[in-house]
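Structure first, sequence second, as always.
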């Protein structure tokens, strides 16, 4: 019995750890948002449920324990009801065709317990939202209904068996919750660190290092699908005067407000980055030459008409961006630089005042 419990713990730990590594890798590439990932999660956790059934162990002559229900609960938490349904079906089918000889009771009892765990998990557990109270409610109700089913089948089930059942499920249930919580916090910490490494702390835009990666990916995608995009390079003329006159903190305030202007001007799907200092670049999706020039002029005009307010109440106006240099990338091959056409909007007279 002890050996089987250790095997179950080892399986749960290994699947949770390596499964979290796989999901983190896929999430970094934006793949976990796709519906087929729910199917993959269900298949992986269904495999876990089948392996847990293999390591079933008896607490008395007619009563056996395994922890398949936790595979179902984890599946619903990870991938929602679709993932949970796939996991449950895999467990039910395996119970009926392959594992009924391991126990002395009809296979439909184990199948019913799995279905009950699935229904309760869907009703109580929220996808990607780990709550101790919801987890314990699901665990407790699953254990209660399973105990009722076993008592209906085996009228002579003694109190010691019930106590062992409760202790085993409670200990394993808390262990699984703690593991999931730990892995969830670790994944969130890694995500924050990744964002911090690729974001400019002042504006929140991507930094130059991240921009280079994004641009390479965009060029490859555009080359593959023959889809043009525009690259806008924005530079504030005479910005050094702000720092020299009002101080670097004032310059930071202007750049921060300038970033908000860009956010409101570009679409959400466009990629904006701070290249360095007062230089910014933006990748504009699916944008032809005529439309690009319109957007570039709108950016220049919006900045020109915006009043930037410093912390001490001083109001500044940036009369122009030196020329919103607009580059329309028409990618037909990997040698994209030789096929780049540049457009420069005319400067307007003025400066910072």
């Amino acid at each position: 019995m002890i050996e089987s419990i250790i095997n179950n713990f080892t399986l749960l730990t290994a699947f949770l750890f390596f499964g979290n590594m796989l999901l983190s890798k896929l999430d970094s590439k934006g793949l976990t948002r796709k519906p087929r990932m729910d199917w993959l999660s269900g298949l992986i956790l269904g495999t876990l449920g089948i392996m847990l059934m293999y390591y079933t162990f008896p607490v008395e002559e007619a009563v056996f324990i395994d922890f398949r229900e936790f595979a179902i609960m984890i599946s619903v938490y990870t991938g929602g009801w679709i993932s949970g349904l796939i996991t449950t079906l895999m467990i039910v089918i395996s119970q009926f065709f392959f594992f009924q000889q391991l126990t002395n009771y009809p296979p439909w009892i184990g199948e019913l317990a799995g279905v009950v765990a699935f229904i309760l998990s869907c009703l109580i557990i929220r996808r990607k939202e780990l709550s101790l109270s919801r987890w314990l409610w699901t665990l407790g109700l699953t254990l209660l209904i399973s105990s009722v089913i076993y008592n209906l089948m085996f009228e002579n089930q003694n109190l010691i068996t019930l106590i062992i059942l409760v202790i085993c499920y409670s200990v394993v249930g808390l262990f699984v919750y703690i593991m999931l919580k730990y892995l969830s916090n670790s994944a969130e910490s890694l995500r924050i660190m990744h964002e911090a490494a690729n974001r400019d702390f002042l504006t929140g835009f991507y930094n130059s290092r991240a921009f280079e990666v994004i641009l390479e990916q965009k060029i490859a995608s555009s080359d593959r699908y023959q889809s043009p995009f525009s690259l806008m390079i924005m530079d504030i003329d005479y910005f050094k005067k702000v720092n020299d006159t009002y101080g670097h903190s004032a310059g930071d305030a202007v750049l921060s407000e300038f970033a908000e202007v860009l956010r409101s001007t570009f679409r959400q799907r466009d990629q904006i980055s701070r290249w360095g200092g007062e230089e910014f670049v933006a990748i504009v999706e699916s944008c032809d030459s005529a439309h690009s020039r319109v957007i570039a002029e709108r950016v220049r005009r919006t900045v020109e008409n915006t009043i930037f307010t410093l912390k001490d109440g001083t109001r500044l106006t940036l009369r122009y961006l030196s020329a919103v240099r607009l580059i329309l990338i028409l990618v037909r091959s990997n040698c994209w630089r030789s096929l780049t056409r540049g457009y420069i909007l005319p400067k307007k007279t003025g400066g910072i005042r």
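Margin note: Strands lie at 57-58, 64-65, 229-235, 271-276, 279-284, 307-309, 315-317, 325-329, 340-344.
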